[in-house]
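Researcher: We're reviewing a set of sequences before deciding which ones to prioritize for further study. For each one, I'd like a predicted 3D structure that I can look through quickly. This is Pilus assembly protein PilW. If possible, include the structure in token form so it fits the rest of the review sheet.
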Amino acid sequence: MTNKGFSLVELMVAMVISLFLTLGVFTMFSMSATNVTTTGQYNQLQENGRMALAIMAPDIEQVAFFGDVTGSDFIVGTNTTVDAAITNDCIGGGLNNRTLPVDIASHFRRIWGYEVGVSATSIDCVTDANAGTDVIQIKRLKGPAGATTGFRVATTSSQIIFRGNSTGTAVKNQRVWNYEHNIYYIGNDNGIPSLKRYSLSDSGSMDNSEGAIVQGIENMRILYGYDNDGDDAADRFLPVENVTDLMWDNQSFQRIVAVKIFLLVRAVEEDRSYTDTVTYQLADKTITPTDYEGSEHYRRKVLSTTVMLENPVLIRN
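Model: Here's the predicted structure for Pilus assembly protein PilW, in token form for your review sheet.
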């Protein structure tokens, strides 16, 4: 009986076929891994952007809500009592733009913003904001009424009393609220561009000890919609450089009644197999590959939303 086996040629042909099959399998795995990375990062971009907007939008929507005195000018010594002090205060542009109203003949600013490195004024406490990004601050009361802890404010139909974390003397028909003063901006968190926030603490101090709120937020652009004819709808949306003092101060029916928020969201992790060459449009601002040179191996996405401000409309009505 003769033993039969593969010839050398047959073995070589089998090895070549096996090599091609193995190469195909590795290619398939490589493509699958790339698809998983791409899909995962785009999902992350969407989720981080939505989370940032979900935090900011409800807060901004309620700007200028001050309970029973919503729509009133705060005149210290007349309808306004400041029985509290702020440490590490954040002072913005305008004559009356601190955490609490001051005794000065100027409107207390409830909303205000600027572009870092472009606008002539800024908020003095925000020193780590990235150049070319917008900053927005808002002030409001937070319900429901009946607050017993935190930084408190009491209101009646004719007066407002900023009490801080003390109870103070009760006033007839008062309602007690928590006070919010928040400043949203873009800064780095361990080298990652992130949405950050300065907030008024329960003890009466402005700080950003919470660090990054949402990582991967690379740029923010805000347009302010103002009502110029008293119909409670935005007639135009303006970049911060074009917003006037009358609009910030809510004077002469120059009311800011809406805000458009545009976010450029960047992947948290770099992908060296990907090179970003896209030009992004954030409202009136164009972000080109030259602007993010050095970080071109990150995926990006633009998300936006429009927020209608309820209380400037209430003020007119």
